[in-house]
Design goal:
about 325 residues; mainly alpha; 2 domains
Length: about 325
C-alpha cells in the first residue's frame, strides 16, 4: 500500500473519531455548566477550547464565552478547523481520496454524514443534545460498517490504528481537564478511604463517565458511589472498558505487528512496536495508587507526551513517502 493511501485511511478514521470525541467533550462541558452553583463556570466552558488549542481563535471571533457561542464555534463553525463539522468534512475528503480502498457501505455512511451535517449551520438544530447524539450515531454507523464489511487487510489495520491513537489521546485529555476542575475540592483522589462527595462532585464525575460511555461499566465493576480514585482507575487501567487508556494501547499494540513498515523504514517500524509495547505494558502493570502519588495531571501529561512520540513514530514508519 502506498504511504499516501495509508495516511489518508489513518486520518480518515482519526477525524471521524475526533468528531465523536469533540461532541463527548462538549456534552460533558454542557452538563457541568448546568449544575447549580457550578464552580469555575467560565473555566469549565473554556476547557474544550484549551484542549483543542483554539482559545486564541475563539477570542479573535470576539464572541462572549457562553454556552451557545461555544457550541456554535466548536460544533458548527466550518471556519474553525477544530470544529465537529470541520472534522467530518476532512474525514469525507480523505474517504473520497481512498474510495477504492473502502467499501460502499463505509463511503455511503461517511458521505451522507457530511451531506447532512453541512446543512446544520443553515437550518439549525433541534437541540444541543440531539446534535451530540446524531454525531455519535453517525460515528457508530461508520465504525460498524468498517467492522462488518471491510476485508481484514492493511486498509482495515490503518483505519483501526487511527481510531485508537485518537481515542487514547482524547481520553487522557478529557480526564486531565475535568479532573483538574473537580479535584481542588475533592479529597477522594487521594488513595485513602473515600468520604461521601458533594452533589456537584457526584454529577461532575457522572458526566465525565457518561461522556466516555463508561457510566454503566463503573457501576458494574465497583457497585458503589462515584469517587475520583475509582474513576481514575477505570479510565486508565481497566482493559475491559473500551475507551480506557489501557484498552486503547492494547489495541494499538495488537494492530502494529500486522503492518509491515515501508521499504527503508524497517528500523522505524521496530521503534513503533517498541514504543507501543512499552506504553501498553506500563498500563498493564500500573497501579492507581502509583498514578495518584505521582499526581494525576503530571502522569497524564507524561502519557500524552509518550502518545505524541508514538504518533510521530507511526507517521515516520508508515505514512511518509520515501
Amino acid at each position: 500500500m502506498l504511504s499516501r493511501t495509508a495516511a489518508q485511511l489513518y486520518w480518515m478514521s482519526r477525524y471521524v473519531e475526533r468528531a465523536e470525541n469533540l461532541v463527548r467533550m462538549l456534552d460533558v462541558t454542557h452538563s457541568l455548566s448546568l449544575l447549580p452553583q457550578s464552580r469555575g463556570a467560565m473555566t469549565e466552558l473554556a476547557a474544550p477550547l484549551a484542549v483543542t488549542g483554539t482559545l486564541e481563535a475563539f477570542a479573535a471571533s470576539q464572541h462572549t464565552l457562553e454556552a451557545e457561542a461555544l457550541f456554535n464555534f466548536m460544533a458548527l463553525d466550518l471556519s474553525n478547523p477544530a470544529s465537529v463539522l470541520s472534522c467530518l468534512r476532512s474525514a469525507r475528503e480523505n474517504a473520497h481520496a481512498v474510495r477504492g480502498q473502502i467499501t460502499t457501505e463505509m463511503w455511503e455512511a461517511i458521505n451522507s454524514t457530511w451531506l447532512e451535517g453541512r446543512e446544520f449551520p443553515k437550518r439549525g438544530i433541534a437541540s444541543v443534545s440531539s446534535f451530540f447524539d446524531w454525531v455519535k450515531e453517525r460515528s457508530h454507523l461508520f465504525r460498524g460498517a468498517t467492522y462488518g464489511t471491510l476485508q481484514r487487510n492493511d486498509a482495515y489495520c490503518f483505519i483501526r490504528l487511527g481510531t485508537f491513537v485518537e481515542r487514547a489521546d482524547n481520553t487522557a485529555r478529557l480526564l486531565d481537564v475535568k479532573s483538574q476542575l473537580i479535584e481542588p475540592a475533592v479529597p477522594s483522589l487521594a488513595p485513602v478511604d473515600m468520604p461521601h462527595e458533594s452533589a456537584p462532585d457526584f454529577y461532575a464525575w457522572s458526566a465525565l463517565l457518561r461522556s466516555l460511555s463508561a457510566f454503566e461499566a463503573y457501576h458494574a465493576v465497583y457497585r458503589d458511589s462515584l469517587d475520583g480514585r475509582r474513576v481514575t482507575e477505570l479510565l486508565i487501567l481497566r482493559p475491559d472498558v473500551p475507551r480506557s487508556l489501557r484498552a486503547c494501547c492494547d489495541e494499538i499494540r495488537g494492530i502494529l505487528p500486522q503492518i509491515e513498515a515501508r521499504p527503508g523504514a524497517l528500523d522505524a517500524g521496530r521503534e513503533v512496536k517498541q514504543l507501543a509495547g512499552r506504553l501498553s505494558l506500563r498500563l498493564e502493570y500500573g497501579a492507581v495508587d502509583e498514578i495518584l502519588s505521582t499526581g494525576l495531571h503530571r502522569w497524564l501529561t507524561g502519557f500524552l507526551d509518550d502518545a505524541a512520540q508514538l504518533s510521530d513514530a507511526i507517521r515516520a514508519a508508515y505514512l511518509e513517502a520515501n
